[in-house]
Write a structure and sequence with these properties.
- The chain has a single domain, classed as LmbE-like (Rossmann fold).
- With 227 residues, the chain is an alpha/beta fold.
- It is 38% helix and 19% strand.
- Helix 5 crosses helix 6.
- It has a 7-stranded mixed sheet with strand order 3-2-1-4-5-7-6, sandwiched between helices.
């Protein structure tokens, strides 16, 4: 089975569906991972939102956004390798962090090259209050529409919002056996640990027992809150 996972930022794949990714890889599915943005605005955003942990961020404060993006994408490369991905299954759109909504056409074009013959597309929810998360949802769905993936199933995951889907459209994947692995994988995102909320989320990973998805088909598009 070909499965394509869309992560708005490096680390969203862990918090959104990391245990499921490990399960799918273990089952020898053909899993592709797309990092849509480059996390270049992480330090600036942390300052503006009072999220920055100063001791951690000190070594990044004087770096340019280009330099931060380079570090963040190198972290993503190393984490994806630790997941078990081969380099040819990991894709970097390198759209600027906090600017994905202004690069939808580019994102759709790039996605359209990767998702042909996908049996399952895994994407963040619609009506998302984070611009990059919403843009990633739009990119994945519009690319699927453009190349007419009629028979593809769509696994929608929630990031920092509530997954709203009818019970019959939901599926829960048990991931308790992958708790410690996810906890360790997250350590590879050193830049992300400069944010307070990321630290809090990391501490919950080794207690996470399941991941929930809204499961939809092509004809369900725009008929549900999160799809």
């Amino acid at each position: 089975m070909k499965i394509v996972v869309f992560a708005p930022h490096p680390d969203d794949e862990i918090f959104g569906c990391g245990g499921s990714i490990l399960y799918w890889l273990k089952k020898a599915h053909n899993v592709h991972l797309i990092y849509v943005t480059d996390n270049r605005a992480l330090i600036e955003w942390g300052i503006n939102e009072n999220q920055l942990i100063e001791d951690c961020a000190q070594k990044y404060r004087n770096l340019s956004k280009d330099e931060i993006a380079e570090i963040a994408l190198e972290e993503a490369k190393n984490v994806s390798k630790s997941f078990g991905f081969s380099p040819d299954k990991v894709h970097y759109f390198k759209i600027h962090d906090q600017d994905a909504e202004n690069n939808l056409e580019l994102g759709i074009k790039l996605a359209s090259r990767i998702i042909p013959k996908a049996d399952r597309i895994v994407l963040p929810s619609d009506n998302n209050n984070h611009n990059d998360h919403q843009a990633t949802h739009t990119i994945a769905k519009e690319a699927a529409k453009q190349i007419s993936l009629w028979d593809t199933e769509f696994y929608v995951y929630a990031l920092y919002n509530v997954l709203k889907a009818p019970r019959e459209k939901q599926i829960k994947v048990k991931i308790a056996k992958y708790q410690e692995k996810l906890y360790e994988l997250m350590k590879g995102y050193k830049t992300q640990f400069c944010l307070k909320d990321t630290r809090i989320g990391w501490k919950t990973l080794n207690r996470k027992r399941s991941e929930r998805f809204g499961v939809f088909n092509f004809d369900d598009m725009n008929k549900f809150e999160n799809f």
